[in-house]
Amino acid sequence: MSFDNDLELRKVAAVNPEAQLLLRVVCEDSTAQCPMSLKFGAKSSMWNELLGMVQELKLNLAGVSFHVGSGCKDPESFEQALLDAKEVFRLAKERGMQEMRVLDIGGGYPGDTAGFEKIAPGIAEKLGRLFPRSEYPELRLIAEPGRFFAAHSAHLLTSLGCAASERKVYAKAKLPATDENAESGSEVCRYYLNDGLYGSFNCIIYDHVSVEPEPLRSHEGPEVPCALFGPTCDGFDVVLEKHTMPELEEGEWILWRNMGAYTSAAPW
């Protein structure tokens, strides 16, 4: 169980004094897809006070945790976080506390394999250098790679809809292009999907994802400008405001890859 303030420690002492605790330290996560440092983590000025309270309340400090932000793609973000964790280990030892045995390096690892393969060696190097087995033989390393496992677990299919839809007839419209760079007489296709920002595509808002539609059926002919909207009447329900792809017809299916993380589960 992680904590980052004195009030949490007092609650643990009152409710579950046998809990194994991890002191969560704040991280520099400004480059992450979804920063978390504003919400979680104890600053260095608080560590000694919190360690003292752990001793005072006779609680069990098992180790340290941190999270460099969801969707982190910079392995250097782990350098300072691991240095901070090592400092907490040192302070606890200096206070004569029991040897800490857990280091939780958090989550947020990229969902795409290429991104993970880029960041993983850097993390491994830093762990080996700052927490060598020779110095920490009993240390248990844990992580929270939810995004990495979940992102590729599901793809999404949306339909441009037809009369068979149970809720609403989704449609297509062709309108004159209003972009100042558009050619005279050109048109823009508006596609209305059976899913949107209030469903699986909430990841655009909350997870800052860039989605890429793939028509399920192959098409001949040029790509044309289009916009893709969700099924609601809300003007905010825009999946892609400006995109180009082959012109589609009503009832066609569109594939959206790697929609397994922070999509359909998030609204609930």
TrEMBL record:
- For this UniProt record, give its keywords in alphabetical order, as a comma-separated list: Lyase, Pyridoxal phosphate
Q: Which organism is it from?
A: Effrenium voratum
Task: Give the Gene Ontology MF terms in alphabetical order.
Answer: ornithine decarboxylase activity
- Residues forming the Orn/DAP/Arg decarboxylase 2 C-terminal domain are 190-260
- Locate the coiled-coil region(s) and give their ranges: none
Family to which this protein belongs: Belongs to the Orn/Lys/Arg decarboxylase class-II family.
The protein's matches in InterPro entries, at most eight in alphabetical order, are given as: Ala_racemase/Decarboxylase_C, De-COase2_C, De-COase2_CS, De-COase2_N, Orn/DAP/Arg_de-COase, Orn_de-COase, PLP-binding_barrel
> Domain named Orn/DAP/Arg decarboxylase 2 N-terminal: which ranges?
1-151
Source organism, top-level taxon: Eukaryota
Q: Give Gene Ontology CC terms.
A: cytoplasm
SUPFAM superfamilies linked to this entry: Alanine racemase C-terminal domain-like, PLP-binding barrel
Protein name per its UniProtKB record: Ornithine decarboxylase
Q: What is its cofactor?
A: pyridoxal 5'-phosphate
One biological process GO term for this chain? Answer: putrescine biosynthetic process from arginine, via ornithine
| Pfam families xref list | Orn_Arg_deC_N (PF02784), Orn_DAP_Arg_deC (PF00278)
